Design the sequence.
């Protein structure tokens, strides 16, 4: 059997024996041959440059790789480019150590799945895992072996653009999704698996005012109970790497926070993967006024950072820091070992080119099977918010006016952070609807308006995708003309993809004025209107909820979103998505989330009138427009009262809670049954309720099914004021229902 070049090189230098041995022994032997410069080089991650096959040796990255001064590269597009750089590292460097190749594979590659926030609204853990598996398969087919996902940050402020990239506001659901994504990406580290990178550690989703990169400040109790659980779940699921966040934690940038990266992550959680910074964050510590760059480099390394993304701070300063005694050789060795272990786990020492098989470019990308999986899953993520008079599903007959600036926009479909997308292959909403009705109905289309009224505003944020401009007055007139001819109007409105995601914070979450003017004019025609709300976050839909007959939140559904939208619109599939973020009535309520703490002067749920000297507003009710867990269907469900197998439970025992769900409508459908728990009295203030279980079930029309949850001690535990994970005896309300507001409760006493 022909040995790889790397194997031959390592045999020649004595680094491999006939029996390669364990990872520890292999890495130890390799490190014993490495120079200081080569060890520091393994900690260096740089962005890709535009090379072509054959010129990699002479590129800046190729030069560094040949010298052994580069450990990883991000955002190199093209299997041929990746192979060329890998060949330089393996064949030209002294020890032939292969490179990691990373990319932001967030929600798919060429087959783009819905944005992560939308995926969470499916509550379908197996489907989420399958989506990650497909994303890894397509990414590795192109040479990528390290994906910067999942993002598991809890976010309760929808102004923050990166809420689109996470799993909503709940730590229990977020933890289950984090586990699924890690296992989907990594599997058993085969040729179709990539190493996951959990981000952003930690608390990035709590940026003040929802402004990206902004300050974060919170108590340890809140951290442990609300924000840290998904990170911990991802670590315990075996994530290969973590990415630190831009923000401060307890006043110290996460990049150099020893308590966070070493005491908590490595010692308390026993995490054994490696930690990479976010883009340029070591150098950004100077902006936090922590110190000059050499100081920041030393602080980052000694805190537990293993790899520097794009600051070149380690390569520029660590040798000097070692001489000055601000870092030790043991610090450098520890970081180097963790990076080499990651490469070992990925099988790169055995075969550096295992992710560079040309045939996979023809067999693994945007396949019919991948597209079908994405289309089916996408339909599960849509949330039906309103359906007055059962307007939906639409019939494939008559005249349908399809109006809005997103009707024929191919580039907008994938959503933010879709770095591997190929929009030219995707179907627009207009094309999908024409195909869906197949001549049985007349489809009339018009853009109606721009996303924003003026080009300067529309282009704010440096949008990278082409944006077609229309004359607003003419477009609106044409839209109203066809609307008056139609039997029903479908309005495709909302955000552009790049209005959410990184560096896309918004201070106003209502429809842009020009779109709202169009929508109001369409409603004024008297024709029934279906709003397809495209968004990467919860938006303000107060006026829409009062005046539009039907609202379907379609988020950004990925490459197959147009066909999936038509599957739901025309009733080929039944909507089943449930919100994982609270939709507020107005901006002034933000942040608004279901699992908030009680106050000493609470207002009862649903109270309509202002109550003096109680915790409420004088101009708006406290409650959400659409609560966490909410979502309608084309059928109806009835929930029985919840029952417990016993009224009491020992601290080391368990009980079961059962609720019977009946499909009382005429269509087969899925329903997400949700379990919530309230700790009635505790040593610290506790949330009004917390999600502690869920089951996605299928019910035929008229079918009833008992749904049972097991209540264990861990579900009742919390971190107390001393950060002990405790179960305090007392009363607990066990609740079940279709969303966080509509629940029945039973009292459980824990002795």
Sequence:
């Amino acid at each position: 059997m022909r040995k790889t070049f790397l194997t031959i090189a390592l045999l020649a230098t004595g680094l491999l024996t006939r029996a390669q041995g364990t990872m520890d022994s292999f890495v130890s032997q390799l490190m014993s041959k490495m120079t200081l410069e080569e060890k520091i080089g393994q900690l260096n991650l740089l962005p890709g440059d535009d090379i072509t096959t054959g010129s990699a040796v002479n590129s800046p990255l190729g030069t560094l790789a040949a010298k052994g001064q580069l450990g990883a590269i991000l955002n190199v597009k093209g299997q041929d480019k990746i192979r060329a750089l890998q060949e330089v590292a393996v064949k030209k460097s002294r020890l032939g150590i292969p490179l990691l190749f990373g990319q932001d594979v967030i929600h798919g590659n060429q087959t783009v799945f819905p944005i992560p926030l939308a995926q969470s609204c499916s509550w379908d853990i197996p489907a989420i895992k399958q989506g990650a598996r497909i994303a890894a398969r397509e990414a590795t087919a192109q040479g990528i072996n390290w994906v910067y996902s999942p993002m598991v940050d809890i976010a309760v402020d929808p102004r923050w653009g990166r809420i689109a990239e996470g799993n909503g506001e709940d730590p229990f659901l977020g933890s289950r999704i984090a586990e699924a994504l890690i296992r989907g990406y990594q599997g058993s580290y085969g040729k179709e698996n990539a190493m996951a990178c959990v981000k952003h550690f930690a608390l990035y989703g709590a940026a003040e005012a929802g402004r990206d990169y902004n300050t974060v400040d919170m108590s340890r109790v809140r951290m442990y109970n609300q924000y840290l659980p998904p990170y911990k779940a991802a670590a315990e699921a075996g994530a290969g790497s973590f990415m630190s966040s831009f923000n401060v934690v307890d006043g110290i940038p996460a990049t150099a926070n020893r308590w966070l990266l070493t005491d908590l992550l490595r010692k308390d959680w026993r995490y054994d993967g490696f930690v990479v910074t976010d883009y340029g964050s070591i150098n950004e510590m100077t902006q936090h006024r922590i110190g000059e760059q050499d100081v920041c480099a030393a602080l980052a390394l000694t805190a537990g950072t293993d790899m520097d993304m794009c600051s070149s701070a380690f390569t520029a300063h660590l040798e000097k820091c070692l001489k000055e005694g601000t870092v030790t050789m043991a610090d450098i060795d520890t970081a180097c070992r963790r990076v080499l272990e990651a490469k070992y786990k990925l099988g790169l020492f055995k075969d550096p080119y295992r992710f560079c098989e040309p045939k996979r470019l023809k067999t693994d990308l945007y396949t019919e099977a991948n597209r079908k999986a994405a289309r089916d899953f996408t339909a599960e993520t849509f949330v039906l918010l309103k359906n007055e008079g059962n307007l939906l599903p639409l019939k494939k007959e008559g005249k349908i006016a399809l109006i809005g600036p997103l009707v024929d926009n191919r580039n907008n479909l994938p959503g933010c952070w879709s770095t591997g997308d190929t929009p030219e292959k995707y179907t627009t909403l207009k094309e999908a609807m024409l195909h869906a009705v197949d001549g049985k109905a007349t489809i009339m289309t018009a853009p109606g308006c721009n996303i924003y009224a003026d080009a300067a505003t529309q282009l704010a944020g440096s949008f990278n995708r082409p944006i077609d401009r229309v004359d607003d007055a003419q477009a609106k007139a044409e839209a109203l003309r066809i609307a008056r001819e139609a039997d029903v109007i479908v309005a495709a409105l909302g955000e552009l993809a790049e209005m959410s995601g990184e560096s896309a914070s918004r201070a106003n979450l209502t429809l842009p004025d020009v779109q709202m003017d169009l929508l109001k004019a369409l409603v004024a025609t008297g024709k029934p209107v279906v709003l397809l709300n495209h968004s990467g976050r919860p938006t303000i839909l107060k006026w829409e909820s009062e005046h539009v007959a039907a609202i379907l939140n379609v988020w950004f559904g990925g490459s197959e979103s147009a066909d999936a939208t038509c599957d739901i619109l025309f009733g080929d599939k039944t909507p089943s998505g449930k919100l994982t973020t609270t939709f507020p009535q107005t901006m002034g309520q933000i942040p608004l989330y279901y699992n908030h703490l009680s106050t000493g002067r609470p207002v009862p749920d649903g109270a309509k009138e202002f109550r003096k000297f109680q915790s409420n507003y004088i101009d708006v009710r406290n409650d959400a427009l659409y609560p966490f867990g909410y979502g309608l269907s084309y059928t109806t469900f009835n929930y029985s009262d919840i029952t417990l197998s016993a009224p009491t439970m020992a601290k080391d025992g368990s009980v079961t809670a059962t609720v019977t769900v009946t499909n009382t409508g005429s269509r087969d459908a899925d329903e997400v049954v949700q379990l919530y728990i309230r700790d009635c009295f505790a040593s610290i203030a506790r949330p009004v309720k917390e999600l502690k279980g869920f089951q996605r079930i299928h019910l035929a029309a008229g079918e009833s099914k008992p749904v049972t949850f097991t209540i264990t001690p861990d579900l009742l535990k919390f971190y107390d004021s001393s950060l002990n994970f405790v179960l305090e005896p007392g009363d607990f309300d066990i609740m079940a229902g279709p969303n966080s507001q509509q629940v029945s409760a039973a009292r459980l006493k824990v002795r």
